[in-house]
Amino acid sequence: MLSMPKCWVFAGRDENLEIGLRLGIWGFEKPSGDVQEQFIKYWEEMNSGDFAVLQRFRQEKAIALVKLKDFFYDSKTLIWPKEHEEGRAIYVWRVKFDVFRMLSKDLWDKKAITSRVPGSRYIRRIGLGLMSFEEFSRLLEDIEREWL
C-alpha cells in the first residue's frame, strides 16, 4: 500500500540551520522527561521520502523544505557549535536529507513563510513537530508562490 509522505517541522538556531543545510543533516537532543515518549513516537514514524520544514527557532517561519533519507544515532561526531564548545555530541538522533527548496540566508527575514503547527503536534523543547496534510499542502502552495 502506498502511503503519503508526512511533513515534519525541525526548528533550530540560525547557526545550526546554516550548518545543517550545508551538510544535509539535522540532529535532535536526546529526549528526557515528559517529551521522551512523544519524541520516540515521532522518530519511529519518520520515513525516507518524508519532508521536513526547517524553521528558525521560536519564529515558526519556514526557510527550507527538505526530503528525508537516512536516520541514525551518532554519539561520537561533533557537528554543531554547542557540541564543539562542550566537546561532546549533543544532537545524537540524526537525519540526513536532500534540500528540496531553500531560501538563501539573506532572504530569511524577508521571505520566510509561516509554518505553524498546533502545540499538540509540536515538541517545543526539542523543536520537532508534525504537520497535517492540509498544513503541508498550504505550505507547498505558499513556497511555490513566494520562493519561485
What CATH architecture label applies?
Roll
Instruction: Note the gap between the termini.
Output: 33 Å
Query: Averaged pLDDT, please?
Result: 93
Structural class: alpha+beta
> Can you write the helix and strand succession as a string?
EHEHEEHEHEEEH
Write down the domain tally: 1
Enter the CATH topology name: ph1033 like fold
User: What composes the largest sheet?
Assistant: 8 strands, mixed
Radius of gyration of CA atoms, rounded to a whole number: 15 Å
Tell me the strand percentage band.
25-35%
Helical residue percent band: 25-40%
Task: Name the poorly predicted regions.
Answer: none
The quaternary structure here is single chain
Number of helices: 5
Shape: globular
Tell me, what is the CATH class? Alpha Beta
Question: How would you describe what is shown here?
Answer:
The protein contains five helices and eight strands. The model has no long low-confidence stretch (mean pLDDT 93). 30% of the residues lie in helices and 32% in strands. It starts with 6 loop residues before the first strand and ends with a helix. The longest helix is centred in the last third of the chain and has 15 residues. It is α+β, with helices and mostly antiparallel strands. It is globular and about 40 Å long. It has a single domain, classed as ph1033 like fold (Roll), CATH 3.10.590. Strands 1, 2, 3, 4, 5, 6, 7 and 8 form an eight-stranded mixed β-sheet that branches.
Write the layout of secondary structure elements.
Blueprint: E1 7-12, H1 14-23, E2 25-28, H2 36-45, E3 51-56, E4 61-73, H3 81-86, E5 93-102, H4 108-111, E6 113-114, E7 122-123, E8 128-131, H5 133-147
Parallel strand pairs: 1-3
Antiparallel strand pairs: 1-8, 2-5, 3-4, 4-5, 4-6, 7-8
